[in-house]
Automatic annotation (TrEMBL), chain A:
This is DUF3570 domain-containing protein. Transmembrane segments: none annotated. The keyword Signal applies. Residues 30-49 have a biased composition (Low complexity). Residues 30-59, 126-149 are annotated as: Disordered. The lineage of its organism: Bacteria, Pseudomonadati, Pseudomonadota, Alphaproteobacteria, Sphingomonadales. It comes from the Bacteria. Keywords: Signal. Pfam families: DUF3570. Residues 1-29 form the signal peptide.
UniProtKB/TrEMBL annotation, chain B:
This is DUF4266 domain-containing protein. It comes from the Bacteria. Residues 25-73 form the DUF4266 domain. It comes from Novosphingobium fuchskuhlense. Keywords: Signal.
Length: 469, 73
């Protein structure tokens, strides 16, 4: 049911993009954003390739419709996402590529609210008071399961349970339009724009990038810029940072601006080996606090929760990352390996390693098992809890995504060409976050309480691609 | 010292001559042109994965821009 709308809208979006001469680039990983190390004029051997995925990728003069669905479910009935993506890409014979993409996702479930577990106390959470002294209506937040609630949105968490806001519910619609144009010999210009709408969040972005092929097309240099403006309008209003839960809100919405640069080098090393090196630099300014996240204030002797305050993050974040990836062919098999180094001005450093092996299966299919390892250090202002008698820090967050942890992904992808113009593909992945669970220096029973709130999830993806020539 | 310099010069020469063989000639591009060798093989799977990682981890970007376009982080 959810797919019907997106499909139509995606088609309309792509058509509008084509008519307006507007530009896409899939929001994060547009196909045309990646420099094409391999030219589209590869010679055909005249012999049938041993496997369908050994065929040339040349798509000049085609219209490609691609639709895929993601089912994502976290363990312990936490967040569930169903996301559909429908895209149309028109590869013109002159090298111009016009594409449009429509994404729809629906998100439900329970998300940790930042407060620490308590072994001794039933914890009660109440949303901020609206200006004028009224509690907000429950709006789209509903509470069930391990929590109880009234129409006011107040909910309780049982002893020993991870405090989660069980009423987490949102829908997102996103559109992305892009165009890549050959502007001179070996030089391509890509431009695009994207919009994303959630019930409490809106984002608009525009981008432009240049890619230049050099040395017999063995080297591609690229440079890109993306500007994004986000608006957040929490259901509960903007709470006063570091103020107690339930206090009067200080506004209805806030903004954030993100500027990102990417400089890339793609190099063909041998006829069956290529490598990519990217440097990304991003600066975010504005409201980056999560308006729904709390930090527990605990008693310095017993470790029991005394109150909850809203988190506060710095208004500026500078990110840098270096990504290196390589693809190596051996017969019809292709090994894909990558590494990413990341650091930001909040004190988070991370490494990501990924390895996958594309293996042909019969004449028309492939399987690709893969593994990914990620680890990050915590932000300087990350704290599992604050002591009631300590001086309140300038910034604090207990959001597990800003704490130290590592994560594994085990996955398998597969695809099959089931007709000359029809391809099906899919993936199944298991994602596991692990981190330090106990803080032996914590007071009282908190030292024996599991403080880690990382997630584990399963992702299932299926997609269909039709090529019209 | 002279030996080190000579060694360094030899190494540089070897590296330069190696450079001459880096890459592929236009008639050697059939493997690079394969679908399986494209950098963004399955863009939809890649986009879903990036979205998941963006909403669950602090780091982002690398392959492309590090923005997100969603309120999930």
């Amino acid at each position: 049911m959810q797919l019907t709308g997106p499909r139509i809208a995606g088609t309309l979006g792509a058509l509008a993009g084509a008519l307006l001469g507007a530009a896409p680039l899939a929001a994060q990983t547009a196909p045309e954003a990646a420099p094409q190390a391999a030219p589209q004029t590869a010679p055909q051997t005249g012999e049938a390739a041993p496997n369908a995925y050994d065929e040339t990728s040349s798509e000049a003069g085609t219209l490609v419709a691609d639709t895929a669905v993601l089912y994502y479910q976290e363990d312990e009935s936490r967040v569930r996402v169903i996301e559909s993506e429908t895209g149309l890409t028109w590869n013109r014979a002159n090298g111009t590529v016009i594409s449009g993409k429509f994404v729809y996702d629906s998100l439900t479930g329970a998300t940790p609210n930042g407060a620490a577990r308590s072994r001794n106390v039933v914890q009660t959470f109440r949303p901020p008071t609206q200006r004028g002294g009224h509690l907000p209506a429950a709006s789209t937040r509903e509470h069930a399961g391990d929590t109880t609630t009234g129409a006011s949105g107040i909910y309780e968490i049982k002893r020993g349970r991870l405090p989660v806001d069980a009423g987490f519910k949102d829908r997102r619609k996103a559109v992305d339009l892009g165009v890549t144009v050959p502007v001179a010999s070996g030089l391509k210009l890509s431009m695009g724009g994207a919009g994303s709408w959630e019930m409490d969040f809106t984002s608009y972005s525009g981008r432009a990038s240049l890619a230049k092929e050099l040395f017999n097309k063995n080297t591609t240099l690229s440079l890109g810029y993306n500007y994004e403006r986000d608006s957040v309008k929490p259901f509960t209003g903007i709470p006063r940072a570091l103020a107690s839960m339930g206090e009067t809100v200080v506004g209805t919405g806030r903004h954030k601006v993100v500027s990102s640069f990417v400089a890339g080098l793609t190099q063909v090393l041998t006829p069956g080996w290529l490598a990519q090196l990217n440097w990304s630099h991003g600066v975010s300014t504005g409201y980056q606090t999560d308006p729904y996240k709390l930090v527990s204030l605990v008693d310095s002797a017993s470790g029991d929760p005394f109150a909850y305050v809203y988190e506060k993050r710095p208004d500026r974040r500078v990110r840098d990352s270096i990504y290196a990836g390589t693809k190596f062919a051996l017969g019809s098999a292709v090994t894909d390996a990558s590494v990413r180094w990341y650091r930001d001005s909040w004190g988070i450093k991370s490494w990501t390693f990924a390895l996958s092996e594309h293996a042909p299966l019969g004449r028309s299919a492939y399987v690709e098992p893969g593994i990914r390892y990620y680890r990050q250090t915590g932000a300087r202002f990350f704290r599992h809890y604050l002591l009631i008698d300590e001086i309140t820090p300038d910034f604090v967050s207990a959001d597990s995504r800003l704490g130290a942890f590592h994560a594994w992904t085990f996955g398998i992808k597969a695809g099959a060409k089931i007709a000359p113009n029809l391809e099906i593909y899919g993936a199944a992945e298991r994602y596991i976050q692990e981190g330090q669970r106990f803080d032996r220096t914590a007071p009282g029973t908190l030292a024996r309480t599991d403080l880690f709130a990382g997630s584990k999830s399963v992702s299932l993806i299926t997609g269909l691609r039709v090529t019209f020539r | 010292m002279a030996r080190i310099r000579a060694g360094a010069a030899l190494f540089a020469l070897a590296a330069l001559s190696g450079c001459a063989h880096i890459g592929a000639q236009p008639w050697q591009r059939d493997v690079l042109a394969r679908k399986s060798m494209q950098l963004a093989r399955e863009p939809a799977i890649m986009a879903f994965d990036e979205h998941t990682y963006f909403s669950k981890e602090a780091a982002s970007g690398g392959r492309s821009f590090d923005g997100g376009g969603c309120g999930c982080n």
